[in-house]
Amino acid sequence: MATLPSYQDAVSKLDWLELVAPYVADKDFTSLCSVNQRFHAVFAPRLWNDPLVAVRRLGLDPSDGKFVSTYTRQTKEYHLLTLLLLFRLSVKDLEWYLRFIFDRMQRLRPKTLALIMTLDFREFAKDTAHFSSDSSSRTIPHTLRQLSKTLPNLRCILLDGHAEADPAFLTTTPASEANMTPPDSRQGLLVLSVAHCQNQLPNGFYASDKLQQLVLLDVSGLPGSLQPLIAAAHGRRNLRKLKVLKVRRREINDSLALMLFQAFKSSLWSLDISENRITDGVVGQFAASCFNGPSLRSQSRFITEGKLVFDGQGNDTFGPFMFIQESDSSATFSDAERHFVDAPIYSVAAGRDLQEDEAVRANGRTPLRRDSVDYVKAATAGGMDHPVPDWSDLPYLDVCSAPAGITHLHISDTQITSSGVERLLRSSQGQLEELSCDEPFFLPVQGSALKQQHLLPWPKNVTLRGALGCAHVFRPVFSSNLRVLRIHHSLVTQIPTLEIDGLSTMARLWLAETVVRERSEMTFPQTFEPDMNPRLTSLTLTKIPRRSNGPLIDKLVQFLTLAGLQERAIRKTASQSSSRRGPVLLHGLRHLRLEFEADPIEDPAGFSAADDLDAEELLNMGEGEGFSFFGDERRPQPRPEATRKKQATAGDEVATHHTQPATVRLSAFPYSDIQGVSIPYRDTWGGSQFDRTIWVGDGILGSNHLAVNEYMKLVTNSLLRTRVGPATPAHVKAGVPEGVLIFHAAWDAIVMPPELKPPRAAELHGMRDVLEAIKAFRIETRAAYEAAKKAAVEGVAELGTTTGPRHCFWSGRLEVSAQQSMAHYRAPGYWR
């Protein structure tokens, strides 16, 4: 949340120069600095804030060092205004930088050097082969040793991607300066990003006095252990002002992650632990260490959002048992006030402030606080487009203040499962504002039970990834402050990513979109939609296949349609207000990013791969031949001739193996020992044992709820009678009674069919390009939107109302990212 202005700022007259400065072209900064002292005071700090960024924006070509701009205005302030445009020789970025540091910087006045706040190397000298290995003294490491004495106000250093740079020089004190007066401890580096450098940091690096003011630290992808960082932060002896920590790809396992959580606890508000080997085993301790603030969940929005019911029960695998008690309209997300922002909290006593245990969620319209390096850098050190904040104002900035625990969390590319993500959100007290989880595993059993997976109907050579069955935890009743979400596309499409040995990419996509999707829809019939959480403003869907048999396209189009209808409903509510003091409305979903995988059509391995197990033979199987996953059996199973003819008549679709309804009761345990619909179960939580009553159904297969039929059959497998937890709204929609406990392992196992039949070649060649289908839909809906807007201008109807021409165009920002094909990359043995 943005901080309020000081009294001096509130009563001061605004300077029009400060207002127009962000809109001035970069090339005009040098001229404006020469107007007078007033203009110089406004534009010189922006020009000199980061010389590496400024020289690039002023025209330095990164390919050869030449300036593409012909602007060479000469001024009297040679040392300030022409230095960035001085070198017009054909030199590389690195050579320009070394000349700037060792030659030109010596001529600058201390007052000018004090304006330099940032050195951003991320897009500078990227193509230099020898970044720091030059045998001469004119090297990058040598410049880093001089920064503290040459640039006294330097706040940010960004060395991302410069593999040969050695950040250890930043904290090294030369022998000649050992007896000098130490710098002011109240000032120092605020942002340090050294991601993917190849040099290991020394053990005492994090305890250096030069780093004690850090607000953001990115040490992702570095070699060596993370133990020195944990030891330095333990007991809050060092890095006490650190708020944003990024430790991607550091080989962090569960034990090291727990030590990291204990070292920082709730002092951080952003943590990125993506691309590490952490599992669901850390979720409980993470919640206890980093989500220990007051709950932001409230029952005041019961009619619109429902409310949580917690009776104090739980277990070690699921956590606290929480049920959603729905109102008449909360389950359908159709309440008339669902788009209203939260009303302010008032107190009887006018001068009484909220206490610590009275925390309330944001109203849904406050500016987003981001944890990116660019955002934190601009907030703490300014830039060409932002003024530099005073040191005295830094503690009050939103990026430097400490909320009660983690609000921004990134756990992509870890071993955390979808049930782990679900438990994480249930335990978050509603304080998460941003969550990234690209492709969580979807597993019916976890932990030690995975060793016995060969005894389950879930094959060991098949892996599913996706966010299935967890849409409800993204509702405001759980995720009260969630504004930004990055997650696997199955949250919306119900189509997980299928990883299986022996099949080509196209075959895996086809199977995931047909057989697996059908069972996924049967198991978890509820998907995420925009009005499920109208407070969410940005959504990124990842790992989307480029090719579709039809259902994937329909799902994405349906979601875009619902986003357009949400926008239309918000506009309609706003237009119906007869007063300027009408209700303040949420923005709704305004940013959608679709991240696609590489197109398998462009990949030589799209239809078949070198490591396929007789993929061509599988594609040529007869209509009655299936691909079995029970045990290690791969032998084609013969079927009766009548069955083959029936499948041929039905278009040779993949069998889903739904057992026909029977009038007899299942005879296996537990139905052989019970007469009702529940069984007793011994559960553990916090070291204590408790007796539970678990719903398993009556054992009679019916025709009303196919998912319940499958669940009852799977419950007979003792290995699947685990992971006890309450029935979610998706379970209830599939036929489970509301308010009961079920075996989540048995229910999740429904998703995978017991047998898969590889598609035929003709079916694969009929798959469509998803991107082209989305583009066609956008063109069609935009045309309808333009027609409605024209009708509104002509007075036929108001835009966005139900009386005008119908349209479902969504005018938010839609981004599309497509992964590059691997067509030009080959396996090591290809060229042999």
From TrEMBL:
<feature type="region of interest" description="Disordered">
    <location>
        <begin position="627"/>
        <end position="659"/>
    </location>
</feature>
<dbReference type="InterPro" id="IPR032675">
    <property type="entry name" value="LRR_dom_sf"/>
</dbReference>
<protein>
    <recommendedName>
        <fullName>Leucine rich repeat domain-containing protein</fullName>
    </recommendedName>
</protein>
<feature type="compositionally biased region" description="Basic and acidic residues">
    <location>
        <begin position="631"/>
        <end position="644"/>
    </location>
</feature>
